[in-house]
Amino acid sequence: MNLDLLAIAAHPDDVELTCGGTMLKMAQLGYKTGILDLTAGEMGTRGTPKTREREAAKAAKLLKVSWRDTLGVPDSDVHPSRDHKLRLAAVIRQLRPKTVILPYWEARHPDHYHASTLGYEGCFLAGLKQLPIVGEAYRPFKILYSTSYANVRPTFVVDISDQYEQRRKAILAFASQFRPKNNERASKVHLAIDHLEEEMNQLARHYGQMIGVQYGEPFLQKELMKVDDVVKLEVRSI
Ligand SMILES: [Zn+2]
Question: What's the pTM?
Answer without folding.
Answer: 0.94
